[in-house]
Amino acid sequence: MAKIKLTPVHFFSHGSTMMLGEESESAAYWEKCGDEALANNIKGVVIMGAHWDCISDKVQVATNPSPSKSPVAYVHPSKYIDYKLNPDLPTANRCISMLRAAGFDCEGNPTFDWIHDTYLILIRMFPSGCPPTTIISMNARFDPHFHLKIGSTLRPLRAENYLLIGSGGAVHNLYRNKWSSMLRYRDSFAQEQPPDREMLEFRQAVQDVMENNSGPELRRGLARLMKHPQFRDAHATDDHFMSALFVAGAVGDEEDRGVGGRLMAETWELTNMCNSQYTVGEWVSA
Fold first, then answer.
1. Which band of pLDDT confidence, cut at 50, 70 and 90, is reported for residue 1?
2. Cβ neighbours of residue 137 closer than 8 Å, sequence gap 6 or more
3. What's the rounded mean pLDDT across residues 44-59?
4. Exposed, middle or buried by CB within 10 Å (0-12, 13-18, 19+), for 23?
5. Dihedral sign (CA 108, 45, 142, 235)
6. What is the DSSP string of 186-221?
7. In 85, 94, 155, 257, which residue has its Cα 20 to 30 A from 188's Cα atom?
8. What pLDDT does residue 2 have?
9. 190 CB contacts (<8 Å, ≥6 apart)?
């Protein structure tokens, strides 16, 4: 029996807002991923970011037909203001139905405006135009298994040529960043001293889990990282790690054994923020 072709899944660390306006290894890789997606005629993008969460047990899907963009600091408006967003309402409603069928308290949000954690990635991936896109919220309890299940529930969309993306951060603790070069010189890439040991330790732990596991072991490994001794140093809040769990859910089925993650690009910002870019799977020629 022929194996079903599945689209790759990306866990992108979107970094600071300046990643939208500055060139970097990560930005070049995002555009490469976008080019590959368009070359393979994706139906659309389904993305979970790190700046939208819902209280109680709820999860929401963006259903605003004409969303605005939340403004971003330290980026000239010309970099994003005229970029036309393309909400995919049919797929949004389908995601709502899939999540409800899996037992989630899920609803659409017809007033949600898009935030830089998602549109930054879309602009960088698809500079010529936004593909049909569906945004899935996090849940504010930040339960890793809850977010694994969201990814697992939406995993079948990979077989229909949808591109699933998690936009968060491998190491993302704003309290440990060194902000002076960005505030004084608009330079978030300045590295006047090495990153703190805890950031290097956790960054390596993420790579070890992503590259040395696949299938259910990848799910377990990423969830277990939330108990890593340096997790709270690397993530003062849990929000930027939830999309990694979403990705693990989407790539962690028994059928995914043998397909681990690959570190494809990396950009350090603000001394202690590590923007690692991972891809799980690859495009398969017809």
1. very low
2. 48, 52, 53, 54, 59, 60, 61, 62, 109
3. 98
4. exposed
5. negative
6. S-S---SSPPPHHHHHHHHHHHHHHHH--HHHHHHH
7. 85
8. 52
9. 181, 182, 271
Token pair of 272 as six digits:
């202690």
pLDDT digits (tens, 9 = 90+) for 114-169: 999 999 999 999 999 999 999 999 999 999 999 999 999 999 999 999 999 999 99
Q: Which of 78, 75, 48 is nearest to 60 (CA)?
A: 48
Amino acid at 41: N
Locate 258 and state its tokens: 């043998």
Q: DSSP H helical segments within 3-127, as ranges? A: 25-39, 89-101, 116-125
CA distance from start to end of the chain: 16
Sign of CA dihedral 223, 61, 255, 39: negative
Query: Does the pLDDT of residue 3 top 80, yes or no?
Result: no
- CB proximity list for 232: less than 8 A, separation 6 or greater: none
